[in-house]
TrEMBL record, chain A:
The lineage of its organism: Bacteria, Pseudomonadati, Pseudomonadota, Alphaproteobacteria, Rhodobacterales. It comes from the Bacteria. One of its GO terms (molecular function) is ATP hydrolysis activity. Keywords: ATP-binding, Nucleotide-binding, Transport. This is Sorbitol ABC transporter ATP-binding protein /mannitol ABC transporter ATP-binding protein. It comes from Tropicimonas sediminicola.
From TrEMBL, chain B:
It is a multi-pass membrane protein. The keyword Ribonucleoprotein does not apply. Keywords: Cell membrane, Membrane, Transmembrane, Transmembrane helix, Transport. It comes from Tropicimonas sediminicola. The keyword Amino-acid biosynthesis does not apply. Pfam families: BPD_transp_1. It is found in: Cell membrane. This is Sorbitol ABC transporter membrane protein /mannitol ABC transporter membrane protein. Gene3D superfamilies: MetI-like. Belongs to the binding-protein-dependent transport system permease family. One of its GO terms (biological process) is transmembrane transport. Residues 73-282 form the ABC transmembrane type-1 domain. The chain crosses the membrane at residues 12-37, 73-98, 110-127, 162-182, 215-242, 262-286.
Length: 334, 292
Protein backbone atom coordinates (compact mmCIF):
# COMPACT_ATOMS: atom_id res chain seq x y z
CA UNK A 1 0.00 0.00 0.00
CA UNK A 2 2.53 2.65 -0.90
CA UNK A 3 5.52 1.30 -2.70
CA UNK A 4 6.93 3.82 -5.16
CA UNK A 5 9.24 2.86 -7.98
CA UNK A 6 11.12 5.22 -10.26
CA UNK A 7 12.50 3.64 -13.39
CA UNK A 8 14.97 5.60 -15.58
CA UNK A 9 13.18 8.83 -14.75
CA UNK A 10 14.58 12.00 -16.29
CA UNK A 11 13.45 15.62 -16.20
CA UNK A 12 14.58 18.47 -18.43
CA UNK A 13 13.56 22.11 -18.37
CA UNK A 14 14.19 23.18 -21.95
CA UNK A 15 17.75 22.08 -22.76
CA UNK A 16 18.78 21.73 -19.14
CA UNK A 17 18.57 18.24 -17.74
CA UNK A 18 17.99 18.59 -14.02
CA UNK A 19 17.40 14.90 -13.34
CA UNK A 20 19.60 12.48 -15.31
CA UNK A 21 18.26 8.91 -15.62
CA UNK A 22 17.44 7.82 -12.11
CA UNK A 23 16.27 4.56 -10.53
CA UNK A 24 14.90 4.40 -7.03
CA UNK A 25 12.58 2.17 -5.06
CA UNK A 26 10.82 3.36 -1.93
CA UNK A 27 9.42 0.47 0.05
CA UNK A 28 5.98 0.46 1.63
CA UNK A 29 5.92 2.10 5.06
CA UNK A 30 9.40 3.48 4.74
CA UNK A 31 10.38 7.00 5.88
CA UNK A 32 12.62 8.15 3.06
CA UNK A 33 14.46 11.46 3.15
CA UNK A 34 15.82 13.20 0.06
CA UNK A 35 18.69 15.35 1.19
CA UNK A 36 21.16 17.51 -0.68
CA UNK A 37 22.34 21.08 -1.08
CA UNK A 38 19.95 23.60 -2.59
CA UNK A 39 19.44 23.21 -6.31
CA UNK A 40 20.26 19.49 -6.28
CA UNK A 41 16.87 18.55 -7.73
CA UNK A 42 15.37 17.02 -4.59
CA UNK A 43 12.21 19.14 -4.70
CA UNK A 44 11.87 18.52 -8.44
CA UNK A 45 12.10 14.80 -7.80
CA UNK A 46 9.34 15.06 -5.18
CA UNK A 47 7.15 17.06 -7.58
CA UNK A 48 7.70 14.42 -10.26
CA UNK A 49 6.48 11.76 -7.85
CA UNK A 50 3.51 13.97 -6.88
CA UNK A 51 2.66 14.52 -10.56
CA UNK A 52 2.92 18.30 -10.33
CA UNK A 53 5.63 18.15 -13.00
CA UNK A 54 5.57 15.88 -16.03
CA UNK A 55 8.54 13.57 -16.35
CA UNK A 56 10.54 13.86 -19.58
CA UNK A 57 11.15 10.14 -19.92
CA UNK A 58 10.99 7.02 -17.81
CA UNK A 59 8.28 5.50 -15.64
CA UNK A 60 6.86 5.94 -12.17
CA UNK A 61 4.96 3.10 -10.57
CA UNK A 62 2.93 3.35 -7.39
CA UNK A 63 2.05 0.01 -5.81
CA UNK A 64 3.25 -1.72 -8.94
CA UNK A 65 0.78 0.17 -11.18
CA UNK A 66 2.16 2.55 -13.78
CA UNK A 67 1.36 6.09 -12.66
CA UNK A 68 3.43 8.02 -15.19
CA UNK A 69 0.45 9.70 -16.85
CA UNK A 70 -1.93 9.63 -13.91
CA UNK A 71 -2.99 13.13 -12.76
CA UNK A 72 -1.83 14.18 -9.26
CA UNK A 73 -5.23 13.78 -7.62
CA UNK A 74 -5.54 10.17 -8.78
CA UNK A 75 -2.17 9.03 -7.48
CA UNK A 76 -3.39 8.72 -3.92
CA UNK A 77 -0.52 10.81 -2.56
CA UNK A 78 -0.82 13.73 -0.16
CA UNK A 79 1.64 16.56 -0.05
CA UNK A 80 2.63 19.05 2.64
CA UNK A 81 4.12 22.18 1.14
CA UNK A 82 6.89 24.42 2.42
CA UNK A 83 4.49 27.39 2.66
CA UNK A 84 1.79 24.99 4.01
CA UNK A 85 -0.49 26.22 1.15
CA UNK A 86 -3.54 26.45 3.41
CA UNK A 87 -6.63 28.05 1.90
CA UNK A 88 -6.73 31.42 3.70
CA UNK A 89 -10.46 32.06 3.29
CA UNK A 90 -11.53 28.72 4.77
CA UNK A 91 -11.63 27.76 8.43
CA UNK A 92 -9.30 25.03 9.67
CA UNK A 93 -12.22 22.59 9.56
CA UNK A 94 -12.98 23.42 5.94
CA UNK A 95 -9.30 23.27 5.01
CA UNK A 96 -9.06 19.76 6.40
CA UNK A 97 -12.38 18.78 4.84
CA UNK A 98 -11.47 20.11 1.38
CA UNK A 99 -9.87 16.97 -0.12
CA UNK A 100 -12.74 14.84 1.21
CA UNK A 101 -15.32 17.26 -0.19
CA UNK A 102 -13.63 17.06 -3.57
CA UNK A 103 -13.64 13.27 -3.36
CA UNK A 104 -17.32 13.21 -2.33
CA UNK A 105 -16.80 11.51 1.02
CA UNK A 106 -20.13 11.36 2.97
CA UNK A 107 -20.68 14.08 5.61
CA UNK A 108 -20.60 11.77 8.68
CA UNK A 109 -17.41 10.14 7.51
CA UNK A 110 -15.86 13.58 6.88
CA UNK A 111 -16.82 14.65 10.37
CA UNK A 112 -15.38 11.51 11.94
CA UNK A 113 -12.07 11.85 10.13
CA UNK A 114 -11.77 15.57 10.94
CA UNK A 115 -12.38 14.88 14.64
CA UNK A 116 -9.80 12.10 14.62
CA UNK A 117 -7.18 14.17 12.82
CA UNK A 118 -7.81 17.21 15.00
CA UNK A 119 -7.44 15.11 18.12
CA UNK A 120 -4.23 13.52 16.91
CA UNK A 121 -2.73 16.89 15.99
CA UNK A 122 -4.02 18.94 18.96
CA UNK A 123 -6.17 21.11 16.70
CA UNK A 124 -9.58 20.55 18.29
CA UNK A 125 -9.71 24.05 19.80
CA UNK A 126 -8.74 25.73 16.57
CA UNK A 127 -11.12 24.08 14.10
CA UNK A 128 -13.19 27.22 13.56
CA UNK A 129 -10.30 29.62 13.16
CA UNK A 130 -8.84 30.87 9.92
CA UNK A 131 -5.23 29.94 9.01
CA UNK A 132 -4.25 33.61 9.41
CA UNK A 133 -5.06 33.40 13.12
CA UNK A 134 -2.74 30.44 13.75
CA UNK A 135 0.96 30.25 14.58
CA UNK A 136 3.48 28.66 12.22
CA UNK A 137 3.48 25.34 14.06
CA UNK A 138 -0.31 25.18 14.11
CA UNK A 139 -0.52 25.92 10.38
CA UNK A 140 1.96 23.13 9.83
CA UNK A 141 -0.26 20.76 11.77
CA UNK A 142 -3.32 21.85 9.75
CA UNK A 143 -1.42 21.08 6.55
CA UNK A 144 -0.55 17.65 7.93
CA UNK A 145 -4.17 17.18 9.00
CA UNK A 146 -5.35 17.95 5.49
CA UNK A 147 -2.97 15.28 4.23
CA UNK A 148 -3.92 12.65 6.84
CA UNK A 149 -7.69 12.69 6.24
CA UNK A 150 -7.19 11.57 2.65
CA UNK A 151 -5.69 8.35 3.96
CA UNK A 152 -3.09 8.47 1.19
CA UNK A 153 -0.78 5.72 -0.01
CA UNK A 154 2.16 7.99 0.77
CA UNK A 155 2.86 11.39 2.27
CA UNK A 156 5.16 13.82 0.51
CA UNK A 157 6.80 16.56 2.57
CA UNK A 158 8.56 19.44 0.81
CA UNK A 159 10.87 21.09 3.36
CA UNK A 160 7.96 21.43 5.79
CA UNK A 161 9.98 22.69 8.75
CA UNK A 162 12.10 25.34 7.08
CA UNK A 163 9.72 28.20 8.00
CA UNK A 164 9.65 27.34 11.71
CA UNK A 165 11.97 28.57 14.43
CA UNK A 166 14.63 26.25 15.84
CA UNK A 167 12.76 25.10 18.95
CA UNK A 168 9.54 24.43 17.08
CA UNK A 169 11.44 22.57 14.40
CA UNK A 170 12.77 20.04 16.91
CA UNK A 171 9.25 19.58 18.28
CA UNK A 172 7.63 19.11 14.85
CA UNK A 173 10.41 16.73 13.86
CA UNK A 174 9.44 14.47 16.74
CA UNK A 175 5.73 14.82 15.94
CA UNK A 176 6.23 13.81 12.32
CA UNK A 177 8.39 10.83 13.34
CA UNK A 178 5.76 9.85 15.89
CA UNK A 179 3.06 10.15 13.21
CA UNK A 180 5.02 7.88 10.92
CA UNK A 181 5.38 5.22 13.62
CA UNK A 182 1.64 5.39 14.31
CA UNK A 183 0.35 5.40 10.73
CA UNK A 184 3.12 3.25 9.25
CA UNK A 185 2.47 4.90 5.89
CA UNK A 186 5.19 5.58 3.34
CA UNK A 187 6.60 9.06 3.75
CA UNK A 188 8.97 10.94 1.48
CA UNK A 189 10.56 13.95 3.05
CA UNK A 190 12.68 16.55 1.29
CA UNK A 191 15.13 18.65 3.26
CA UNK A 192 18.48 20.36 2.95
CA UNK A 193 19.10 19.88 6.66
CA UNK A 194 21.15 16.75 7.27
CA UNK A 195 20.18 16.75 10.96
CA UNK A 196 16.52 16.28 9.96
CA UNK A 197 17.59 13.56 7.56
CA UNK A 198 19.68 11.70 10.17
CA UNK A 199 17.09 11.89 12.94
CA UNK A 200 13.94 11.03 11.00
CA UNK A 201 14.84 8.73 8.13
CA UNK A 202 14.67 4.99 7.71
CA UNK A 203 16.41 5.55 4.40
CA UNK A 204 18.33 8.58 3.21
CA UNK A 205 18.80 9.41 -0.46
CA UNK A 206 21.68 11.86 -0.91
CA UNK A 207 21.33 13.87 -4.10
CA UNK A 208 23.75 16.10 -5.93
CA UNK A 209 22.91 17.78 -9.25
CA UNK A 210 20.05 15.33 -9.81
CA UNK A 211 22.29 12.30 -9.27
CA UNK A 212 21.81 9.88 -6.42
CA UNK A 213 25.13 9.83 -4.58
CA UNK A 214 24.18 7.20 -2.02
CA UNK A 215 21.13 5.47 -0.62
CA UNK A 216 21.14 3.90 2.81
CA UNK A 217 20.17 4.05 6.44
CA UNK A 218 21.41 7.08 8.39
CA UNK A 219 24.14 5.09 10.14
CA UNK A 220 25.28 3.37 6.96
CA UNK A 221 25.80 6.79 5.41
CA UNK A 222 27.54 8.01 8.51
CA UNK A 223 29.90 5.09 8.90
CA UNK A 224 30.41 4.09 5.28
CA UNK A 225 30.04 7.11 3.00
CA UNK A 226 30.45 5.98 -0.60
CA UNK A 227 32.34 9.08 -1.69
CA UNK A 228 33.81 12.37 -0.47
CA UNK A 229 30.57 14.29 -1.16
CA UNK A 230 28.47 12.09 1.12
CA UNK A 231 31.31 12.03 3.67
CA UNK A 232 31.36 15.81 3.77
CA UNK A 233 27.59 16.28 3.66
CA UNK A 234 26.46 13.85 6.34
CA UNK A 235 27.54 14.58 9.91
CA UNK A 236 27.75 17.78 11.89
CA UNK A 237 30.28 19.28 12.28
CA UNK A 238 31.62 18.16 8.92
CA UNK A 239 34.17 15.41 8.43
CA UNK A 240 37.75 16.70 8.04
CA UNK A 241 38.97 15.81 4.56
CA UNK A 242 42.58 16.18 3.51
CA UNK A 243 44.57 15.24 0.44
CA UNK A 244 48.27 15.45 -0.30
CA UNK A 245 51.18 13.80 1.47
CA UNK A 246 49.27 12.84 4.61
CA UNK A 247 46.69 11.01 2.49
CA UNK A 248 49.33 9.22 0.44
CA UNK A 249 50.86 7.85 3.66
CA UNK A 250 47.61 5.90 4.02
CA UNK A 251 47.58 4.84 0.38
CA UNK A 252 44.72 7.14 -0.69
CA UNK A 253 44.15 10.39 -2.60
CA UNK A 254 41.91 11.83 0.08
CA UNK A 255 41.46 10.80 3.66
CA UNK A 256 38.67 11.80 6.00
CA UNK A 257 38.35 11.73 9.75
CA UNK A 258 35.30 12.80 11.73
CA UNK A 259 35.80 15.43 14.46
CA UNK A 260 34.81 12.94 17.16
CA UNK A 261 37.46 10.42 16.05
CA UNK A 262 40.45 12.61 16.83
CA UNK A 263 42.18 12.35 20.19
CA UNK A 264 43.54 15.52 21.70
CA UNK A 265 46.61 15.92 23.86
CA UNK A 266 48.64 18.86 25.13
CA UNK A 267 51.94 17.01 25.01
CA UNK A 268 52.14 14.52 22.14
CA UNK A 269 50.33 13.30 19.03
CA UNK A 270 50.45 12.79 15.27
CA UNK A 271 49.69 16.36 14.19
CA UNK A 272 50.67 19.55 15.93
CA UNK A 273 48.54 22.71 15.63
CA UNK A 274 47.33 25.87 17.27
CA UNK A 275 43.93 26.30 18.89
CA UNK A 276 41.63 28.77 17.12
CA UNK A 277 38.02 29.25 18.14
CA UNK A 278 36.52 26.81 20.64
CA UNK A 279 32.73 26.41 20.57
CA UNK A 280 31.43 25.31 23.96
CA UNK A 281 28.06 23.58 23.82
CA UNK A 282 28.24 22.30 27.38
CA UNK A 283 28.02 18.61 26.55
CA UNK A 284 30.58 18.89 23.77
CA UNK A 285 33.27 21.28 22.71
CA UNK A 286 34.22 21.86 19.08
CA UNK A 287 37.78 23.10 18.70
CA UNK A 288 39.00 24.57 15.44
CA UNK A 289 42.71 23.83 15.07
CA UNK A 290 44.89 25.79 12.66
CA UNK A 291 48.45 25.51 11.34
CA UNK A 292 48.52 21.72 11.24
CA UNK A 293 50.07 21.81 7.78
CA UNK A 294 47.18 19.65 6.46
CA UNK A 295 44.28 22.00 5.68
CA UNK A 296 43.27 25.45 6.85
CA UNK A 297 41.31 24.17 9.75
CA UNK A 298 40.75 20.85 11.46
CA UNK A 299 37.62 20.51 13.57
CA UNK A 300 37.85 18.35 16.68
CA UNK A 301 35.00 17.34 18.92
CA UNK A 302 35.62 16.46 22.54
CA UNK A 303 33.15 15.43 25.17
CA UNK A 304 32.88 17.80 28.08
CA UNK A 305 35.31 20.66 28.37
CA UNK A 306 39.02 21.22 27.89
CA UNK A 307 41.29 23.92 29.22
CA UNK A 308 42.48 25.08 25.82
CA UNK A 309 42.75 28.78 25.08
CA UNK A 310 43.04 30.61 21.81
CA UNK A 311 46.61 30.32 20.50
CA UNK A 312 47.63 27.32 22.64
CA UNK A 313 49.63 24.53 21.04
CA UNK A 314 47.78 21.25 20.77
CA UNK A 315 48.45 17.74 19.45
CA UNK A 316 45.92 15.70 17.46
CA UNK A 317 45.93 11.96 16.82
CA UNK A 318 43.36 10.37 14.48
CA UNK A 319 41.90 7.02 15.48
CA UNK A 320 43.34 5.03 12.61
CA UNK A 321 40.56 2.41 12.51
CA UNK A 322 38.01 5.23 11.96
CA UNK A 323 39.90 6.75 9.02
CA UNK A 324 37.99 7.01 5.71
CA UNK A 325 40.08 6.59 2.55
CA UNK A 326 39.05 7.80 -0.90
CA UNK A 327 40.65 7.23 -4.31
CA UNK A 328 41.35 9.75 -7.07
CA UNK A 329 37.67 9.69 -8.20
CA UNK A 330 36.57 10.48 -4.67
CA UNK A 331 35.14 6.97 -4.16
CA UNK A 332 35.65 5.17 -0.89
CA UNK A 333 38.36 2.49 -0.72
CA UNK A 334 37.11 -0.42 1.33
CA UNK B 1 7.74 56.05 15.45
CA UNK B 2 7.26 59.72 14.72
CA UNK B 3 8.51 62.30 17.15
CA UNK B 4 6.49 65.33 18.23
CA UNK B 5 8.66 67.42 15.98
CA UNK B 6 8.24 65.34 12.81
CA UNK B 7 4.48 65.11 13.39
CA UNK B 8 4.04 68.87 13.52
CA UNK B 9 6.28 69.26 10.49
CA UNK B 10 4.15 66.73 8.63
CA UNK B 11 0.96 68.61 9.56
CA UNK B 12 2.45 71.87 8.41
CA UNK B 13 3.50 70.44 5.07
CA UNK B 14 0.14 68.75 4.48
CA UNK B 15 -1.82 71.89 5.37
CA UNK B 16 -1.82 73.50 1.90
CA UNK B 17 -3.14 70.34 0.28
CA UNK B 18 -5.83 69.91 2.93
CA UNK B 19 -6.92 73.55 2.68
CA UNK B 20 -7.04 73.32 -1.12
CA UNK B 21 -9.07 70.11 -1.05
CA UNK B 22 -11.50 71.46 1.53
CA UNK B 23 -11.98 74.67 -0.46
CA UNK B 24 -12.43 72.69 -3.64
CA UNK B 25 -15.14 70.60 -2.03
CA UNK B 26 -16.80 72.92 0.47
CA UNK B 27 -17.32 75.99 -1.73
CA UNK B 28 -19.32 74.22 -4.48
CA UNK B 29 -21.16 72.15 -1.88
CA UNK B 30 -22.23 75.23 0.07
CA UNK B 31 -23.25 77.02 -3.11
CA UNK B 32 -25.29 74.04 -4.26
CA UNK B 33 -27.06 73.89 -0.90
CA UNK B 34 -27.64 77.64 -1.02
CA UNK B 35 -29.13 77.64 -4.53
CA UNK B 36 -31.29 74.60 -3.81
CA UNK B 37 -33.38 76.67 -1.38
CA UNK B 38 -33.75 79.62 -3.78
CA UNK B 39 -35.82 80.40 -6.84
CA UNK B 40 -33.12 81.08 -9.44
CA UNK B 41 -34.20 81.34 -13.09
CA UNK B 42 -31.54 83.42 -14.88
CA UNK B 43 -33.66 83.81 -18.04
CA UNK B 44 -36.47 85.42 -16.01
CA UNK B 45 -34.13 88.05 -14.61
CA UNK B 46 -33.16 86.37 -11.33
CA UNK B 47 -29.58 87.08 -10.38
CA UNK B 48 -27.39 87.09 -7.31
CA UNK B 49 -27.06 90.89 -7.57
CA UNK B 50 -30.86 91.43 -7.30
CA UNK B 51 -31.19 88.96 -4.50
CA UNK B 52 -32.92 85.55 -4.78
CA UNK B 53 -36.28 84.55 -3.28
CA UNK B 54 -36.21 81.93 -0.51
CA UNK B 55 -38.57 79.08 -1.44
CA UNK B 56 -37.87 76.53 1.30
CA UNK B 57 -38.11 72.90 0.16
CA UNK B 58 -40.19 73.68 -2.95
CA UNK B 59 -37.33 72.76 -5.32
CA UNK B 60 -36.79 69.44 -3.53
CA UNK B 61 -40.45 68.54 -3.78
CA UNK B 62 -40.67 69.55 -7.43
CA UNK B 63 -37.58 67.52 -8.33
CA UNK B 64 -38.87 64.21 -6.98
CA UNK B 65 -42.47 64.72 -8.08
CA UNK B 66 -41.47 65.46 -11.66
CA UNK B 67 -42.36 62.69 -14.10
CA UNK B 68 -38.69 62.31 -15.12
CA UNK B 69 -37.39 61.53 -11.63
CA UNK B 70 -38.17 57.82 -11.17
CA UNK B 71 -37.30 56.89 -14.78
CA UNK B 72 -33.95 58.59 -14.24
CA UNK B 73 -33.28 56.58 -11.07
CA UNK B 74 -34.22 53.42 -12.97
CA UNK B 75 -31.91 54.29 -15.87
CA UNK B 76 -29.05 55.04 -13.48
CA UNK B 77 -29.42 51.75 -11.64
CA UNK B 78 -29.73 49.71 -14.84
CA UNK B 79 -26.63 51.29 -16.35
CA UNK B 80 -24.52 50.99 -13.18
CA UNK B 81 -25.69 47.43 -12.49
CA UNK B 82 -25.31 46.29 -16.07
CA UNK B 83 -21.83 47.72 -16.45
CA UNK B 84 -20.70 46.27 -13.12
CA UNK B 85 -22.01 42.81 -13.99
CA UNK B 86 -20.35 42.81 -17.41
CA UNK B 87 -17.01 44.28 -16.37
CA UNK B 88 -16.58 42.08 -13.29
CA UNK B 89 -17.55 38.84 -15.04
CA UNK B 90 -15.53 39.46 -18.17
CA UNK B 91 -12.75 41.07 -16.11
CA UNK B 92 -12.27 37.88 -14.06
CA UNK B 93 -12.24 35.72 -17.19
CA UNK B 94 -9.87 38.04 -19.06
CA UNK B 95 -7.56 38.26 -16.06
CA UNK B 96 -7.32 34.47 -15.91
CA UNK B 97 -6.69 34.34 -19.65
CA UNK B 98 -4.00 37.03 -19.54
CA UNK B 99 -2.32 35.31 -16.61
CA UNK B 100 -1.55 32.28 -18.79
CA UNK B 101 1.97 32.32 -20.18
CA UNK B 102 1.74 33.07 -23.91
CA UNK B 103 3.71 34.58 -26.74
CA UNK B 104 3.47 38.38 -26.98
CA UNK B 105 2.06 38.72 -23.47
CA UNK B 106 3.35 42.27 -22.95
CA UNK B 107 1.79 43.63 -26.14
CA UNK B 108 -1.51 41.85 -25.56
CA UNK B 109 -1.74 43.31 -22.07
CA UNK B 110 -1.12 46.83 -23.35
CA UNK B 111 -3.78 46.36 -26.06
CA UNK B 112 -6.28 45.16 -23.49
CA UNK B 113 -5.69 48.23 -21.35
CA UNK B 114 -5.86 50.65 -24.31
CA UNK B 115 -9.63 51.44 -24.26
CA UNK B 116 -9.22 52.95 -20.81
CA UNK B 117 -7.04 55.69 -22.28
CA UNK B 118 -9.63 56.78 -24.86
CA UNK B 119 -11.62 59.81 -23.73
CA UNK B 120 -15.31 59.02 -23.02
CA UNK B 121 -16.51 61.57 -25.61
CA UNK B 122 -14.29 60.06 -28.29
CA UNK B 123 -15.16 56.46 -27.56
CA UNK B 124 -18.88 57.30 -27.50
CA UNK B 125 -18.55 59.05 -30.88
CA UNK B 126 -16.64 56.13 -32.34
CA UNK B 127 -19.23 53.65 -31.12
CA UNK B 128 -22.11 55.81 -32.31
CA UNK B 129 -20.82 56.48 -35.81
CA UNK B 130 -18.60 53.52 -36.58
CA UNK B 131 -20.48 50.65 -34.98
CA UNK B 132 -24.05 51.59 -34.13
CA UNK B 133 -25.04 53.80 -37.05
CA UNK B 134 -28.05 52.03 -38.62
CA UNK B 135 -26.93 52.90 -42.19
CA UNK B 136 -23.14 53.02 -42.25
CA UNK B 137 -22.22 51.26 -39.00
CA UNK B 138 -20.20 48.09 -38.97
CA UNK B 139 -22.89 46.32 -36.99
CA UNK B 140 -25.49 47.37 -39.58
CA UNK B 141 -23.28 45.85 -42.31
CA UNK B 142 -22.92 42.68 -40.27
CA UNK B 143 -26.68 42.40 -39.83
CA UNK B 144 -27.23 43.04 -43.56
CA UNK B 145 -24.61 40.42 -44.43
CA UNK B 146 -26.87 37.89 -42.73
CA UNK B 147 -29.92 39.35 -44.43
CA UNK B 148 -31.35 40.83 -41.24
CA UNK B 149 -32.74 44.34 -40.88
CA UNK B 150 -30.15 46.57 -39.14
CA UNK B 151 -30.92 47.40 -35.53
CA UNK B 152 -31.30 51.05 -34.65
CA UNK B 153 -29.14 50.58 -31.62
CA UNK B 154 -29.40 53.92 -29.88
CA UNK B 155 -33.15 54.25 -30.19
CA UNK B 156 -34.42 50.65 -30.14
CA UNK B 157 -31.96 49.30 -27.61
CA UNK B 158 -30.72 52.48 -26.03
CA UNK B 159 -29.90 51.24 -22.50
CA UNK B 160 -28.11 48.07 -23.64
CA UNK B 161 -26.15 50.15 -26.17
CA UNK B 162 -25.02 52.56 -23.48
CA UNK B 163 -24.12 49.71 -21.17
CA UNK B 164 -22.07 48.20 -24.00
CA UNK B 165 -20.18 51.45 -24.62
CA UNK B 166 -19.46 52.13 -20.97
CA UNK B 167 -18.50 48.50 -20.30
CA UNK B 168 -16.01 48.65 -23.13
CA UNK B 169 -14.39 51.62 -21.42
CA UNK B 170 -14.30 50.16 -17.93
CA UNK B 171 -13.46 46.54 -18.71
CA UNK B 172 -9.70 47.31 -18.93
CA UNK B 173 -9.76 48.84 -15.48
CA UNK B 174 -11.44 45.79 -13.96
CA UNK B 175 -9.14 43.44 -15.87
CA UNK B 176 -6.03 45.27 -14.73
CA UNK B 177 -6.92 45.23 -11.04
CA UNK B 178 -8.06 41.59 -11.17
CA UNK B 179 -4.95 40.55 -13.10
CA UNK B 180 -2.64 41.95 -10.44
CA UNK B 181 -4.75 40.20 -7.80
CA UNK B 182 -4.54 36.88 -9.63
CA UNK B 183 -0.78 37.22 -9.94
CA UNK B 184 -0.49 37.40 -6.17
CA UNK B 185 -2.15 33.99 -5.76
CA UNK B 186 0.28 31.52 -4.21
CA UNK B 187 0.94 28.81 -6.81
CA UNK B 188 1.43 26.26 -4.03
CA UNK B 189 -2.23 26.80 -3.08
CA UNK B 190 -3.32 25.85 -6.57
CA UNK B 191 -1.00 22.86 -6.56
CA UNK B 192 -2.29 21.80 -3.15
CA UNK B 193 -5.88 21.97 -4.39
CA UNK B 194 -4.88 20.03 -7.48
CA UNK B 195 -3.42 17.29 -5.28
CA UNK B 196 -6.55 17.45 -3.13
CA UNK B 197 -8.50 16.40 -6.20
CA UNK B 198 -10.10 19.68 -7.22
CA UNK B 199 -11.03 19.85 -10.91
CA UNK B 200 -10.34 23.13 -12.79
CA UNK B 201 -13.88 24.40 -12.19
CA UNK B 202 -13.74 23.66 -8.45
CA UNK B 203 -10.29 25.27 -8.29
CA UNK B 204 -11.85 28.40 -9.80
CA UNK B 205 -14.78 28.54 -7.39
CA UNK B 206 -13.00 27.41 -4.21
CA UNK B 207 -9.54 28.96 -4.59
CA UNK B 208 -9.31 31.63 -7.30
CA UNK B 209 -12.64 33.40 -6.81
CA UNK B 210 -12.34 33.75 -3.00
CA UNK B 211 -8.80 35.02 -3.50
CA UNK B 212 -10.17 37.67 -5.88
CA UNK B 213 -12.96 38.66 -3.48
CA UNK B 214 -11.21 41.71 -2.15
CA UNK B 215 -10.11 42.94 -5.57
CA UNK B 216 -13.65 42.50 -6.90
CA UNK B 217 -15.10 44.62 -4.07
CA UNK B 218 -12.55 47.34 -4.80
CA UNK B 219 -13.42 47.27 -8.50
CA UNK B 220 -17.13 47.52 -7.68
CA UNK B 221 -16.57 50.39 -5.25
CA UNK B 222 -14.43 52.51 -7.54
CA UNK B 223 -16.52 51.84 -10.64
CA UNK B 224 -19.82 52.61 -8.91
CA UNK B 225 -18.54 56.01 -7.86
CA UNK B 226 -17.49 56.83 -11.42
CA UNK B 227 -20.47 55.19 -13.14
CA UNK B 228 -23.01 57.18 -11.13
CA UNK B 229 -21.57 60.25 -12.80
CA UNK B 230 -21.27 59.16 -16.45
CA UNK B 231 -22.31 61.99 -18.69
CA UNK B 232 -20.33 62.35 -21.91
CA UNK B 233 -21.48 58.96 -23.26
CA UNK B 234 -25.15 59.95 -22.89
CA UNK B 235 -24.67 63.48 -24.13
CA UNK B 236 -22.90 62.34 -27.28
CA UNK B 237 -25.11 59.38 -28.17
CA UNK B 238 -28.77 59.83 -27.21
CA UNK B 239 -28.78 63.22 -25.54
CA UNK B 240 -30.90 61.77 -22.79
CA UNK B 241 -33.64 60.50 -25.11
CA UNK B 242 -35.06 56.96 -25.30
CA UNK B 243 -35.01 56.41 -21.55
CA UNK B 244 -31.31 57.01 -21.07
CA UNK B 245 -31.72 60.02 -18.84
CA UNK B 246 -29.76 59.22 -15.69
CA UNK B 247 -29.89 61.24 -12.50
CA UNK B 248 -26.77 63.22 -13.36
CA UNK B 249 -28.10 63.90 -16.86
CA UNK B 250 -31.44 65.05 -15.45
CA UNK B 251 -29.64 67.53 -13.19
CA UNK B 252 -27.71 68.81 -16.21
CA UNK B 253 -30.95 69.32 -18.12
CA UNK B 254 -32.62 71.13 -15.23
CA UNK B 255 -29.76 73.55 -14.84
CA UNK B 256 -28.61 74.15 -18.40
CA UNK B 257 -31.50 73.29 -20.70
CA UNK B 258 -34.34 74.56 -18.51
CA UNK B 259 -32.11 77.21 -16.92
CA UNK B 260 -33.51 76.40 -13.49
CA UNK B 261 -30.51 76.58 -11.16
CA UNK B 262 -32.52 76.11 -7.96
CA UNK B 263 -34.25 72.93 -9.16
CA UNK B 264 -31.01 71.48 -10.51
CA UNK B 265 -29.21 72.20 -7.25
CA UNK B 266 -31.88 70.34 -5.33
CA UNK B 267 -31.32 67.40 -7.67
CA UNK B 268 -27.59 67.73 -7.01
CA UNK B 269 -28.17 67.41 -3.28
CA UNK B 270 -30.20 64.22 -3.89
CA UNK B 271 -27.31 62.87 -5.96
CA UNK B 272 -24.87 63.63 -3.15
CA UNK B 273 -27.07 61.75 -0.69
CA UNK B 274 -27.45 58.79 -3.07
CA UNK B 275 -23.70 58.58 -3.72
CA UNK B 276 -23.01 58.70 0.02
CA UNK B 277 -25.48 55.89 0.74
CA UNK B 278 -23.73 53.74 -1.87
CA UNK B 279 -20.33 54.73 -0.52
CA UNK B 280 -21.25 53.84 3.08
CA UNK B 281 -22.48 50.41 2.02
CA UNK B 282 -19.42 49.74 -0.05
CA UNK B 283 -17.01 51.05 2.56
CA UNK B 284 -18.52 48.64 5.06
CA UNK B 285 -18.12 45.70 2.69
CA UNK B 286 -14.58 46.69 1.83
CA UNK B 287 -13.76 47.34 5.47
CA UNK B 288 -14.95 43.84 6.38
CA UNK B 289 -12.94 42.34 3.56
CA UNK B 290 -9.80 44.27 4.44
CA UNK B 291 -9.95 43.01 8.02
CA UNK B 292 -9.98 39.34 7.10
Amino acid sequence: MGQIQLNQVTKSFGDVQVIPPLDLTIEDGEFTVFVGPSGCGKSTLLRLIAGLEDITSGHIAIDGKDATDVPPAKRGLAMVFQSYALYPHMSVRKNIAFPMRMAGVPEDEQKRRIEAAAKALNLTDYLDRRPGQLSGGQRQRVAIGRAIVREPAAFLFDEPLSNLDAALRVGMRLEISELHKRLATTMIYVTHDQVEAMTMADKIVVLRAGNIEQVGSPLELYHEPRNTFVAGFIGSPKMNLFDGAEAQKHGATTIGIRPEHIDVSKTEGTWKGRVGVAEHLGSDTFIHVHDTGLVDMVTVRITGDIAARHGDEIYLSPQLDKLHKFDAEGLAIR
Amino acid sequence: MATQHSRSAARLMMAPAVVLLLGWMLVPLTMTLFFSFKKYLPLRGDSLANGLDWVGFENYVRFVTSSSFWPSIYATLVIVGGVLAITVTLGVLLAILLNQPMWGQGIVRILVIAPFFVMPTVSALVWKNMFMDPVNGLLAHLWKAFGAAPVEWLSQASLPSLILIVSWQWLPFATLILLTAIQSLDSEQLEASEMDGAQPLSRFFYIILPHLGRAITIVILIQTIFLLAIFAEIFVTTGGAFGTKTLSYLIFQRVLESQNVGLGSAGGVYAIILANIVAIFLMRIVGKNLDA
